[in-house]
Design a protein that fits this description.
CATH architecture: Roll
Distance between the termini: 24 Å
Strand order of the largest sheet: 1-4-5-6-3
Helix content: 10-25%
CATH superfamily: Hotdog Thioesterase
Largest sheet: 5 strands, antiparallel
Number of strands: 8
Number of domains: 1
CATH class: Alpha Beta
């Protein structure tokens, strides 16, 4: 496996193009360890900021999911650390949502700064019925509506 691989999930002919959004974050004092590097356990917070911004842009907010009785926990997370982020480094975190027919969301995430790539990651979020805590085996109606909008080009400004 290549450590710098930006595409983790397969793309299939005929699938809608992935959705992508980038946010900026400056490494704060509370993020760093005694060496002055962003502590490895903080990277998921950076990644979550980008994924949350992308979710907001496509109306998949926590409030919308909760209102539909759906929870969306992380089921898998993988991170390849490439180079450390130093205190006060300005970073750009790019979240990419990759199409799948399954009852899940697939994210690919990259953290960069002016000196290059710091980390690449992938995450899978599943859907859970809030009232029963049961995992959805098929996408819930809210996700089907979202995917129909995606298929029809409703998020063209985010597509790559």
């Amino acid at each position: 496996m290549q450590r710098h691989k930006l595409e983790h999930f397969p793309r299939h002919e005929g699938d809608p193009a992935p959705l992508r959004l980038t946010v900026k974050r400056k490494a704060a004092y509370s993020d760093v360890d005694p060496m002055g590097y962003v502590w490895f356990g903080r990277y998921p917070l950076y990644m979550e900021a980008a994924a949350d911004a992308l979710n907001q842009a496509v109306d998949l907010t926590h409030a919308a999911l909760s209102g539909a009785g759906v929870l969306n926990p992380v089921a898998q997370l993988g991170i390849n650390y490439i180079r450390p982020i130093l205190l006060e480094t300005e970073t750009e975190i790019t979240a990419t949502l990759v199409w799948t027919e399954a009852a899940k969301l697939q994210y690919e995430i990259a953290i960069r700064s002016e000196i290059g790539l710091h980390a690449v990651a992938w995450a899978v979020n599943v859907f859970v019925e809030a009232s029963s805590n049961q995992v959805f085996l098929a996408p819930p109606p809210l996700i089907e509506s979202f995917r129909e909008r995606w298929r029809e080009g409703g998020f063209a400004c985010l597509q790559i």
